[in-house]
Amino acid sequence: MTVVPYKEDNAGKKQQVARMFDSISGNYDFLNHFLSLGIDIRWRKKAIKLLASGNPKIILDVATGTGDFAIETLTLNPDQVIGVDISEGMLEVGRKKMKARGYDQKIDLRLADSENLPFQENKFDAVIVAFGVRNFEHLEKGLAEMRRVLKPGGRMVVLEFSKPRRFPFKQFYNFYFKFILPKIGRLISRDPAAYTYLPESVQAFPDGEAFTKILDRLGFNQTSCTPLTFGISSLYTGVK
Q1: What are the DSSP E strand ranges found in the chain?
Q2: How far apart are alpha carbons 159 and 130 in whole angstroms?
Q3: How far apart are CA 43 and CA 165, in angstroms?
Q4: Whether the Cβ atoms of residue 117 and residue 85 lie closer than 8 Å to each other
Q5: Which strands make up the sheet holding 107-111, listed edge to edge?
Q6: Which of 86, 47, 91, 88 is nearest to 66 (CA)?
Q7: Cβ atoms 54, 155 nearer than 8 A
Q8: What is the end-to-end Cα distance of the chain in Å, rounded?
């Protein structure tokens, strides 16, 4: 069953996710760091380090949101970073951030659909996505598009929430994710659906080995999964 933010709405997942992120865009960065206790910043840094050996010059950040992952790629000194997202609200916050920090000449944020990327084949040295693939309406279609625009030998890095499996952290995490996080998110974001959808979408996502098997089936090579912070999130990589 497809998990959507607004269960009483007949719109597709893609449209609902875009509307949800539009509604929380103003508070997204604060909530992201606050609810993860700032650990998400370390996760992004670790993810980008996986690209260093390839010295990528043109990078695509899919589901870029407000552009935090795109900003982190600047440590690699790329020539160009393009971030795409389906939420114009998130992109607008991101563009203001880029301009304020002087990154707007190197990072270009565009409205685009991950399942129909407006780029030619073999364009990017690296493709990245943080906390976005579980929001794809058609997961394999989005991943196949990411592979299509990668250059041969290019690397994809995916950072995504996963499900801890060890006692007692699994129980503590599930309690926090299902009961505490939605209440805090609802209080600050004023969108009760957004932080109820988050734990539901994580539970439904095929994490770990199930995800690497999907990457293998789509033609990615050298696929791997590295759990982070007791399995709260995982780093996935694959090479075209």
Answers
A1: 58-62, 80-85, 107-111, 124-130, 150-161, 221-228, 233-239
A2: 5
A3: 19
A4: no
A5: 107-111, 80-85, 58-62, 124-130, 150-161, 233-239, 221-228
A6: 91
A7: yes
A8: 30
**For position 169, what pLDDT does the model report?**
85
Among 168, 163, 160, smallest CA distance to 178 is for: 163
pLDDT tens for the 240 residues of the chain, in order: 689 989 989 999 999 999 999 999 988 888 777 767 789 999 999 999 999 999 999 999 999 999 999 999 999 999 999 999 999 999 999 999 999 999 999 999 999 999 999 999 999 999 999 999 999 999 999 999 999 999 999 999 999 999 998 888 899 888 988 888 888 877 777 787 888 888 899 999 999 999 999 999 999 999 999 999 999 999 999 999
- Residue owning tokens 């592979």: 147
β-pair type (221-228, 58-62) = unpaired
Which residue's structure tokens are 């949800």?
20
Tokens of 2: 């497809």
Structure tokens at 129: 């996505």
CA-based R_g, the chain, Å:
17
Instruction: State how far the Cα of 72 lies from the Cα of 45, in Å rounded to an integer.
Output: 7
Report the relative pairing of strands 221-228 and 233-239 from DSSP bridges: antiparallel
**Count of residues for the chain?**
240
| Stated pTM of the model | 0.95
Residue 87: name the closest of 21, 131, 5, 24 by CA.
Answer: 21
